[in-house]
Amino acid sequence: MRKSVDVxxxxxxxxxxxxxxxxxxxxxxxxxxERRGVASEASGANYGMVWQQTRLPGLDLAMARRSLAxxxxxxxxxxxxxxxxxxxxxxxxxxxxLQKRLMDQVVQGKRDIGIPVxxxxxxxxxxxxxxxxxEILGEVPAVKGFYMAAGHAHAFxxxxxxGEALAALIVDGQPTMSLEEASLRRFQS
Length: 189
Known about the structure:
3-stranded parallel β-sheet; 3-stranded antiparallel β-sheet; 6 strands
């Protein structure tokens, strides 16, 4: 086992494992230190959606759009296990005329920044999803983008970049106590 590494990533969730995957394509000496197991905390419990409809203009929306493009690219790469990416949608429903007026404003704001979104009335919404309550006046469907973070983290932790074994080492069950001061100086310069 190596006594030193070039990059130490604290946390084996979706971000830590994805970062290790991408870095290990370019450099050796990447280690992920995880105290409980890959995707055992937030990445294993969240719903893991990437939707542009919920984003604000500017960096937030730009990052969501880039994430959606990256997931499309990643689904074409070879993984040892299922990456669990599914392109699905969702919906925001409304029940009252006041909620409808507010949703009209939200939808227009999204259209103004280039997000293709529409409002469906209750009967059109129920044609898409028959289990919806008859009390729903309408809905705004959200299309594009969905992923399961736990599956992604596990896929990244097992992924062989460029056909070789993953260059990043995953150390499970290892709480991070401290980093040596000498090691930190390297990153500060």
